Structure formats: structure tokens, C-alpha cells
Automatic annotation (TrEMBL):
SMART domains: AAA. The gene is urtE. PROSITE patterns: ABC_TRANSPORTER_2. It comes from the Bacteria. PANTHER family: HIGH-AFFINITY BRANCHED-CHAIN AMINO ACID TRANSPORT ATP-BINDING PROTEIN (PTHR43820:SF5), HIGH-AFFINITY BRANCHED-CHAIN AMINO ACID TRANSPORT ATP-BINDING PROTEIN LIVF (PTHR43820). This is Urea ABC transporter ATP-binding subunit UrtE. The keyword Transmembrane does not apply. Gene3D superfamilies: P-loop containing nucleotide triphosphate hydrolases (3.40.50.300).
């Protein structure tokens, strides 16, 4: 059974129908990539998964339980980690404090996992710096590390390559692959950078105007010319 199952989800902003009968699943050990042009509803889908916007109909099951009525806090505690678009680092808090925010719903005194500094060595040297003083790429790494701090089973990332230098994009791609390959985490990745998405995709979903218009195994993306579907 899939770790995450999204079934026939509909969502509206006021009178605008934003998500239309969206179906999606994510499996442990796999990267599920969500592709689509600007404004098709990708971020709204992720916010719906996280409980940041309410869904109107349909269901979301995580780890065998319906979560569509759960608060964002409850979903985080159940094991969903979220890396929002634009990173949302606390600019005036230090790197260490930002990482501690990722542990907010763990018992007090829970240490920051040392492993995060193996994944992102740069963060170790910068523990005392303010988040706002980091480069965009470093902030993205910090945002991912913050989401990983509590040991999620599902990691959701919204356009982690946006505005990031190529060498850091490569590092982030390696970390995503490694996390998936361990087999105890599912990853949902929204991406506009097609090559990055294709390289990481075990499964893909393409959205257009709030609907899923194509999906399948990542290995078929080239043959199905998915690049063309999302080209700007
Ligand atoms: N808070 C909101 N209130 C009303 N409409 C919104 C709101 N947020 C997004 N929308 C609209 O919903 C649609 C989907 O937006 P969404 O951000 O989910 O798309 P996206 O695929 O993530 O795009 P992008 O890649 O630009 O982030 C767009 O038409 C957008 O204008």
C-alpha cells in the first residue's frame, strides 16, 4: 500500500476551482515528481497535503490513516516534512535555531540529528549565523535539513531548485536520491526544472489547470515526451 494516497481531491479559492479530482500516490523508497507550468495548482496541491489549505472533497490517506481533517501540526507530527516554495527560513534566527524549529513538536531537548550535517556539511560551519545571511542555496539546504530534523516518513519539496546555483542543485539532487534509496522515506517533489525532475523521478504526474493530465513511471518520461507537456 502507498504511504500517501490522494484520491479525487477538489479544492477552491473562493469561486475558482483550483484542484480537480486530483489523484496521486507516493511510495516509500520512491521519488514522485509533480510537473506543470506556472499556476496549474502544484503548490496548492502540496499545501492541501500539508493541511495549509482545506480541501472541498476527496480524501488524503497517510500511513493508513485519513488525514484530510488533521491540522498541519498533526500532519507534521504524523511524519510529513514540508520544504515550502521560497524556503521560508527564519531570517533573524540562527541556523541552529532554524533547525530546532524543525523539532518544535518533539519533546524538549531533542537534539538536532548529527546526520543532517553529514548531508549538508555547510550547515555545520554556519550554526551561529543568521538564516538571512546565508546564500539562497544554503537557505534551501537549511530548509531541507529543518524538514528532515524530525525524521519524516514523507518529505514534500516545492521547487527546491528555484533560484539556486547549479553546483548546489547537484548536491540537493544527490541528497534527495540518497534519502529515497534508503527505502524508509517517500518523497514528493514539485519541480519546474525539467532535467532535474526527470533524473530523480521514479514516478511522475503532470498537472494542467488543476487536473492530472499524465502520469506514469519516471523511466517513461522521455519516450512519452513529457518535457514537451511542461515546456514554457
Ligand atoms: N491564496 C490564493 N487565493 C486565490 N487564488 C490563489 C491563491 N493561491 C493561488 N491561487 C491561484 O490558484 C492557482 C494555482 O496556484 P498554485 O500556486 O497552486 O500554482 P503552481 O502550479 O504552484 O504555480 P507556481 O509554479 O507558479 O507556484 C493559480 O491560478 C493562482 O493564481
Amino acid at each position: 500500500m502507498s504511504l500517501l494516497q490522494v484520491k479525487d481531491v477538489n479544492q477552491y479559492y473562493g469561486g475558482s476551482h483550483i484542484l480537480r479530482n486530483v489523484n496521486l500516490s507516493a511510495e516509500l523508497g520512491k521519488v514522485t515528481v509533480v510537473l506543470g507550468r506556472n499556476g496549474v495548482g502544484k503548490t496548492t496541491l502540496l499545501k492541501s497535503l500539508m493541511g495549509l489549505v482545506p480541501i472541498k472533497s476527496g480524501g488524503i490517506t497517510f500511513d493508513g490513516k485519513a488525514i484530510d481533517k488533521a491540522t498541519p501540526y498533526e500532519r507534521a507530527r504524523a511524519g510529513i516534512g514540508f520544504v515550502p516554495q521560497g524556503r521560508e527560513i527564519f531570517a533573524r534566527l540562527t541556523v541552529q535555531e532554524n533547525l530546532q524549529m524543525g523539532l518544535a513538536y518533539k519533546p524538549g531537548g531533542t537534539p538536532i540529528p548529527a546526520e543532517l550535517f553529514e548531508l549538508f556539511p555547510v550547515l555545520k560551519q554556519m550554526l551561529g549565523r543568521r538564516g538571512g545571511d546565508l546564500s539562497g542555496g544554503q537557505q534551501q539546504q537549511l530548509a531541507i535539513a529543518r524538514a528532515l530534523a524530525a525524521g519524516p516518513k514523507l518529505l514534500i519539496l516545492d521547487e527546491p531548485t528555484e533560484g539556486i546555483q547549479p553546483n548546489i542543485i547537484k548536491d540537493i539532487g544527490k541528497v534527495i536520491r540518497m534519502l529515497a534509496d534508503r527505502g524508509n522515506m517517500a518523497i514528493v517533489l514539485v519541480e519546474q526544472y525539467y532535467d532535474f525532475a526527470e533524473e530523480l523521478a521514479d514516478q511522475y504526474v503532470v498537472m494542467e489547470r488543476g487536473e492530472v493530465i499524465a502520469s506514469g513511471p519516471g523511466s517513461e518520461m522521455q519516450a512519452k515526451n513529457i518535457r514537451q507537456l511542461v515546456a514554457i
